[in-house]
Write a structure and sequence with these properties.
globular; about 0% strand
């Protein structure tokens, strides 16, 4: 197996926690959408754009992110991704307005996509054989855990402390994960001292990877649009009912 002793499971716990921060920040707009729309005077399309924009950098950053990880190291790239999540989250708190929200979500989304690409490889570096299936299953389920955590906690925080407190919580969580990653993560034994070589795909393989990344992000954007349309339909029905 790729890692020895219980160290690999501790590393998996760190990666799981970090990836929940990615999902937690992504879902913040969906969990707080009525309050965000009211506070910033946004329409339904604007809210849908904020939701989809977070993962939009995946179209452009998936392949370069992997190459940068091979060049600078997985851990360094995850730390850089978390730093971008903190910076983008801080912008959404400190600078009100639709344009600032767009910029903050885009910056944070770039960081989230970068760390997501790197951490999947990091799990594979630590596990092999039959354990890789268990490890990947645990790691992948960090996403719904982060989404559920946002839906369960952020509306309550917003009711108590306001929208800024709820958005700030996502930023604080990302900052805590940055410190956790810096303090506890380490490379697997066989990777220490190794010189990774980036293998850049070409031809049909490159086209297939780009198509897959574009299809995934298009699906996310379509889902956000469907949610916005459903919300609009319900609002129109409610308006006609009470008119």
């Amino acid at each position: 197996m790729a890692g020895g002793g219980s160290a690999r499971w501790r590393v998996l716990a760190v990666l799981f926690t970090v990836r929940t921060a990615f999902a937690f920040q992504f879902q913040a707009v969906g969990a707080l959408s009525p309050l965000i729309a009211e506070s910033y005077g946004m329409g339904l399309a604007d809210v849908g754009l904020l939701i989809g924009l977070y993962l939009a950098p995946g179209i452009a950053m998936a392949l370069p992110g992997g190459a940068l990880g091979a060049r600078f190291g997985d851990r360094q790239m995850v730390l850089a991704g978390l730093a971008l999540m903190v910076a983008g989250g801080a912008m959404t708190v400190a600078a009100p307005g639709f344009e600032a929200q767009l910029a903050g979500r885009l910056i944070a989304g770039v960081g989230g996509v970068i760390l997501n690409v790197q951490m999947t490889k990091m799990v594979a570096d630590w596990f092999s054989g039959r354990e890789i299936a268990t490890a990947m299953a645990i790691f992948v389920n960090s996403w719904p855990v982060g989404v559920a955590l946002a839906l369960a906690t952020l509306p309550m925080v917003a009711e108590t402390g306001g929208l800024g407190a709820a958005l700030g919580l996502t930023t604080v969580y990302a900052a805590l994960c940055l410190m956790l990653m810096a303090a506890l993560h380490r490379a697997p034994p066989q990777a220490i001292g190794a010189a990774p070589v980036a293998a850049w795909p070409a031809g049909a393989a490159l086209a297939g990877l780009c198509a897959a990344a574009a299809a995934f992000d298009l699906g996310v954007a379509m889902l956000a649009a469907c949610v916005a349309l459903l919300w609009a339909f319900r609002a129109i029905r409610a308006h006609h009912r009470f008119a």
